[in-house]
Design a protein that fits this description.
Low-confidence stretches: none
Strand order of the largest sheet: 1-4-6-9-8-7
Mean pLDDT: 88
Order of helices and strands: EEEEEEEEE
CATH architecture: Beta Barrel
Helix content: under 10%
Number of helices: 0
Radius of gyration: 16 Å
CATH class: Mainly Beta
Structural class: mainly beta
């Protein structure tokens, strides 16, 4: 993967970190996500794929997003871009100083 130029990172995204709050019984539950950072990003072309899982056809849509390396970023974070929330499936640190996130749109039904 090649390094992105600064001018290519021309979209604003928000990165949210999942928070934990005490559940009152000695454990934790998911709390409201806290804003980790608002950063400039390069949003890659959306990838569509189809395959088989357990004998049945499936399809998927993933979105690649490249940003500068961000402290505290992990797979538990979510990304918001143009009022759409994405969950992070994978983080690729193969380019020095950058991270490319493979994301999937979060769909709420019902």
């Amino acid at each position: 993967m090649k390094t992105t130029r600064v001018g290519e990172r021309n979209k604003r995204i928000q990165v949210y970190k999942a928070s934990k709050v005490p559940d009152g019984q000695g454990g934790y539950r998911k709390g409201k996500p806290a804003l980790l950072a608002t950063v400039w990003a390069y949003v890659h072309t959306t990838k569509f794929w189809a395959g088989n899982a357990g004998g049945g056809p499936i399809s998927g849509i993933t979105q690649g997003i490249t940003i500068k390396t961000l402290e505290g970023l992990d797979e538990s974070c979510t990304v918001t871009y143009k009022n759409q929330t994405y969950e992070i499936l994978n983080l690729d640190y193969s380019v020095d100083g950058e991270v490319t996130m493979t994301c999937k749109a979060v769909v709420h039904r019902g």
